[in-house]
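Forwarding these from the shared drive since the link keeps breaking.
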Amino acid sequence: MKQASSDGKAREGHFSFNTESKNGKDYLTDLNFCLDFALENRYQIMERVEYSLKKYCGGGVITSSLINRNHNHVELKGDLLIHRKGTTHAEKGMLGVIPGNMRDGSFIIVGKGNEDSLSSSSHGAGRISSRKQARENTDIKDFQEAMEGVTAKVDDSTLDESPFAYKNILDVMELQKDLVEVIEIVKPLINIKA
């Protein structure tokens, strides 16, 4: 069922259907296909990175330690369909990754299974400005200085992904201590924006 606003357009957040209906079943089938596709994509990326590490650095195996956590998806838990929008799964003992930004890195976490949050945590730092605002308001020289020490594409085409476009990941992590435990902070050496 869709609820329309006064202008006749459907309102965000007001779309629903019975998951036992054809549309509901089709939606869940498509969703699971997309999740499987995303996982395969991650494996393909990991294989290429692993190949390059072995070839150029004599590196070891990394694919055995893949942490696969999705955000913006639906998951069946008991009788509930939990839609995690801007969040990720954080069951008790479950490993996860919470990204910050191009400069500040990512947090490897273990979930605490907080039922008040439906065993979820934030997906990442979250934006403080839209992509358009970031492109318009970020000085390229400030962006370049902020990215010193990280090899990355730092130009007008990536202004919308600058660290200034995101909330402070340390503050975000502090606010969710009851949801996750940080076990490692991974700082970037190379950042690739596709």
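-- next protein --
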Amino acid sequence: MKKKVLYVRTSSVSQNNDRQKVNQDNYDFVLEDKCSGSIPLFEREEGKKLHRLVKDGVVEQLHVSSIDRLGRNLKDILITIEYFTERQIPIHFVKQGLTTMDETGKQNPISKMMISILGVVSEMEREQIRERQREGIELGKLRGVYKGRLKGTKEDTLSFLSKPKNKRVVELLNKGYKGVEISKIVGVSQNTVCKVRSLSTIEVFSIR
């Protein structure tokens, strides 16, 4: 008997995924990855399990909370959708209310168009984050703040700020959270919060 599968992804261990797992008791399998959306679905740990279930003919339908949980790259998203469509497995995007196939088993043209648009938006958001990081580094260089590779590590500032937890710190700093609050929410030390703040060009009204 084929099964209903719910796939969940968060970018870091500290992120809460409860909203993605609503009504999880309605599913036969709940697969949960904690990784960057830039990693193709079937290269993720739980994504590999999903791939095996599909190859074994177990999956009847796949449910995902939103399109960007599949990936942040439009090409990867479309390749994934095509893979499931070829095997007559519909993907239901709960948040957007979209399904890749209609009741007759044919690809839904309206959903395909909307998925492409939303995929582009997701990709643009990811690129904007990267662009802000690059701009921050350039401004940091002009201010004499950017020092390249961090002392005692083999990573440069961009790599440091690109880590999932540190990206989350940046988001919360932009929202005006205090250092102590961010430390508890993200699960990092206050020293890390301060380091992230000093290496970025974020304007924060208060942090302590």
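Strands lie at 3-10, 29-34, 59-64, 91-93, 98-99. The first strand starts at residue 3 and ends at 10.

- D.
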